Amino acid sequence: MDELDPARRELLIGGVMAAIAAGMAGGAQASPLDSAQTIIIPKGEIPWKPHPIYGGHVQETCTLFGDPNKAGLYLSMIRWHIGFMSIPHYYDTDRICMVMSGTWWCNSGADFDPKACVPVPAGGFVRRVARTHHYDGVISGGTEPVEVAVFGMGPINYKPSDPTRAQGYMRA
């Protein structure tokens, strides 16, 4: 490979350095955000809704992407209020969960014993393995509601451990 003439090399390097400096100095303009391509929902504008069966005093929900009851990916948020927990249940698919705020109290099994729950504080991760019984929420001694982001593949096909309780919650 032929070497560049030193004068030509310095001219090329100088041009590249000038372009980099111009870009760093704000010479290049970024495109404006396209809200059709990048959808942003600030925390205060997340569209929470009362749980259709439990009511808003027990749990609120919000589906941000997809639908947990239909085939495909989904992302939902769940907010449990103090003193309420789900009855033991399971789903047909794995659920990937991240605690966004508060403390989520979780346990495995078809029996219900809030005192045996494990606290998962904000920033904690929980994977609910498909077809394994579990329950969760906020124990009576909790200090604040918990908000959990739940991601997975639908349909989840919710199944209570006790078939006589189609869906429900328990006081913790």
Give structural notes:
The protein is mainly beta. The chain has one domain: Jelly Rolls (Sandwich), CATH 2.60.120. Helix content is 11%, strand content 36%. The protein has one helix at 6-24; strands at residues 49-50, 59-65, 72-80, 84-86, 89-90, 95-101, 103-108, 118-121, 125-128, 134-137, 146-154, 159-160, 169-171. A hairpin with an 8-residue loop joins strand 1 and strand 2. It is elongated and about 85 Å long. The protein starts with 5 loop residues before the first helix and ends with a strand.
Domain tally: 1
User: What order do the strands of the largest sheet run in, or round the barrel if closed?
Assistant: 1-2-3-11-6-9
* Class of secondary structure makeup: mainly beta
The 3D shape can be described as elongated
- What is the rounded Rg? 25 Å
Q: Which regions are unreliable across 5 or more consecutive residues at pLDDT < 50?
A: none
Concise synopsis of the structure shown:
The protein has 172 residues and is mainly beta. It has one helix spanning 6-24, and strands spanning 49-50, 59-65, 72-80, 84-86, 89-90, 95-101, 103-108, 118-121, 125-128, 134-137, 146-154, 159-160, 169-171.
